[in-house]
Amino acid sequence: QICESSGESLVSCEGECCSVFHMECLGLKSMPEEKFICTECKNGEHTCFSCKLPGKDVKRCSVNTCGKFYHEACVRKFATALFESRGFRCPQHCCTACSMDKDIHKASKGRMVRCFRCPIAYHSGDGCIAAGSLFVSSHILICSNHSKRNHSSSAVNVGFCFVCARGGKLLCCESCPASFHPECLNIEMPEGCWNCNDCKAGKKLRYKQIVWVKLGNYRQVCCFWVLVLCVWWPAEICNPRSVPLNIQGLKHDIGDFPVFFFGSHDYYWVHQGRVFPYVEGDKSFAEGQTSINKTFKKALEEAAKRFQELKAQRESKEALEIERNSRKPPPYKHIKSNKVIGKVQIQVADLSEIPRCNCKPSDENPCGLESECLNRMLQYECHPQVCPAGERCQNQCFTKRLYPDAEIIKTDRRGWGLRTKRSIKKGEFVNEYVGELIDEEECRLRIKRAHENSVTNFYMLTVTKDRIIDAGPKGNYSRFMNHSCNPNCETQKWTVNGDIRVGLFALCDIPAGMELTFNYNLDCLGNGRTECHCGAENCSGFLGVRPKTAFATANEEKVKNAKLKQKKRKIKTEQKQMHEDNCFQCGDGGELVMCDKKDCPKAYHLLCLNLTQPPFGKWECPWHQCDVCSNPAVSFCEFCPHSFCKDHEKGALVASALDGHLCCSAHD
Description:
The protein has 668 residues and is α+β, with helices and mostly antiparallel strands. The protein contains 15 helices and 39 strands. It has a 5-stranded antiparallel beta sheet with strand order 18-17-16-15-19, with helices on one face. A 5-stranded mixed beta sheet has the order 21-25-27-26-33. Strands 10-9-12-11 form a 4-stranded mixed beta sheet. The longest helix has 32 residues, at 294-325. Mean pLDDT is 83; it is low at 523-528 and 567-576. Residues 158-202 form the PHD-type domain.
């Protein structure tokens, strides 16, 4: 911890920090006979591994062998930190590169190589480690963030915009060659130093990556080096251990890495300020460079060929990984009961507060499905010390975990699912929905982090306003149950020993071999408007949208028949006003708000109206107000809610090719 080098005669601190020291660095001549405790552990004031400021308000990483301390505000800045019931796992237990690539399942698995100076870690191997990192030992490195080089004085920027590929007045990144027009980024020209988004996010180049290199002001004698000074040259980033020994011996610093130049097959040490990634089909960029000779043309051909080789290797590896992962569900930790995270608490009732039912031990099925147990009717689980039925009580399914046998299966279009191995009676307890019990604040943080990492699968279910079950990282088999608009199970909130828990119960008799499903509608968080693939006849088309009822389906047939009869008889009959079954704004079905204006059949989703709850009282839809001034409309678009009053109707609508129906400028 003092000289940052490995060697013999290391003394380990037996306190909380797990640090090691050389005896000579501590001023010791021999190994201490008693247990060695470092100064920080003795004083109880550890230094934050992120901001390097000491204090007693720092907290230790929950991994036993880690020993790193952080301020909570500091560790929360890292997306790779994982908060658990017992604390947090610091960023050094998650690969930074995989996290950048949004591969969160892979990020925390496998062997890690950790930075000695900051909370950065990578998987061992060239695929993840940032180019320019310096290895201290087989599992410890100093990452390229700790380069002593002043990038702002040595970066060589390109002369074109990375967005539109044109020149002009450019905004140049101080840490890499990237340049942009401020208008292409929709920003004003900033004052002082500026870094691009990739550099701000900490995105790094990796080994075996094809790049463009420009040496800038280096002085060399041969013609090739003179040419490299002038133009961007294609090269491959190499691991220092794979280059010739004479190249390894050249002067370089942390953050520098060797590159292999195509065409000339020379090596040189460069840094991030002089290279940018090669993109497939970079011919237009190359053609725009001057002084192109035979060596450069050869370099372009070799770079394109090598790029395709590396791409094929990467795709083959990814295909093998996908095929391997398709054989089993994504990893999660199996738990039997809810695990508390943060400030959430599990309530425990006193025995005197638990309700007592009126069942008797002599009853045929005391507290069973067909009994008249008061607790079961009120969705309370009986307590073994309170229930008069004693050991014969059949209303203790949550506590005893009496789940019917089920198995995880792979479905056609809905990922993994759960299938029962035996028949289940209507009303029977199927499973308890368990996971990490979190509050609303933590829930929103997790959803935000999931969106940032392109995660589309959510397992969050609301118990109460500030109690949400997240079965994503931890849960039981219930987390695999898919949504259905016509489910065979439902969620019920039961009170078990004073605490509210969520159980899944059969809505009908379920035969063995049937997939178990429940309706996510209004219960699960994080889905948004996700397309539904349940295949039910009454499918709403989206998760979170109420399915069509049997009444609505029957009404569709009645309306069709009524219209046919009306045409045949050619008489006007006064009938109840019927509304359309699809939203007039987006065209989808689901739960709709109906217009109350006489003879208006239009209906809308609350979401399409930008409303959070149904309007109060008599309500007229937007179709009846002018888009410009909100006065009563006289001209209407027949394809969307746009309409106009007398003063604004001129030129607003035109006849469409569909039987001359009027349409606004929003339609072709």
